[in-house]
Write a structure and sequence with these properties.
By secondary structure, the protein is an alpha+beta fold. It has one domain (10-149): Mannose-Binding Protein A, Chain A (Roll), CATH 3.10.100.10. 15% of the residues lie in helices and 25% in strands. The chain has helices at residues 45-54, 65-76; strands at residues 10-12, 17-20, 57-59, 82-89, 96-98, 123-127, 133-137, 144-149. Strands 1, 2, 3, 4, 5, 6, 7 and 8 form an 8-stranded mixed beta sheet that branches. The radius of gyration is 14 Å and the shape is globular.
């Protein structure tokens, strides 16, 4: 369950608006981007997705090096080791897909690709400990997350 006192704020840039949880300090990166401060919420991947969708948004997807760098800069301001991505592995076919239906045209896996086993690791996080690369983890783990407004 979520902390009912949770506050959220928007991260706005030229292309999109993001809602961020668990940013520990206010940071301005570029003239159109605002980062949020003093927010903390950890949840499973499904609960994070539900939280975002209740607010007409989705878990963050990353489609370019520029977006990767911007999100990495944000994650770097937090004390969270991992942040959920809106990236999931198909249970039936094993391929990865963004839940907002964007094409998986950019990838930043820690070893160049996701691990193939075990199949129970069907969700992805951006990992501070791995230089902000992506790692696959169990969806039942609890991590902080970022929502992108639709």
């Amino acid at each position: 369950s979520f902390n009912t006192n949770l506050q959220s704020c928007d991260l706005s840039n030229i292309n999109s608006s993001l809602t961020v949880t668990n940013a520990s300090s206010l940071k301005l990166l570029g003239k159109h981007e605002k980062w949020c401060q003093n927010l903390c919420l950890c949840s499973t991947w499904e609960d994070a997705l539900d939280y975002c969708r209740e607010r007409n948004s989705d878990l963050i997807s990353i489609s370019s090096q520029m977006e990767q760098d911007a999100i990495a800069a944000l994650v770097n301001t937090t004390n969270s080791p991992n942040v959920w991505l809106g990236l999931r592995r198909s249970r039936m076919f094993g391929f990865w897909f963004w839940i907002d239906e964007k094409p998986l045209s950019y990838e930043q896996w820690v070893n160049g690709s996701s691990s193939q086993l075990p199949a129970c690791k069907r969700c992805a996080v951006m990992s501070q400990a791995n230089n902000f690369s992506w790692i696959d983890v169990s969806c039942s783990e609890e991590h902080t997350f970022i929502c992108r407004n639709k």
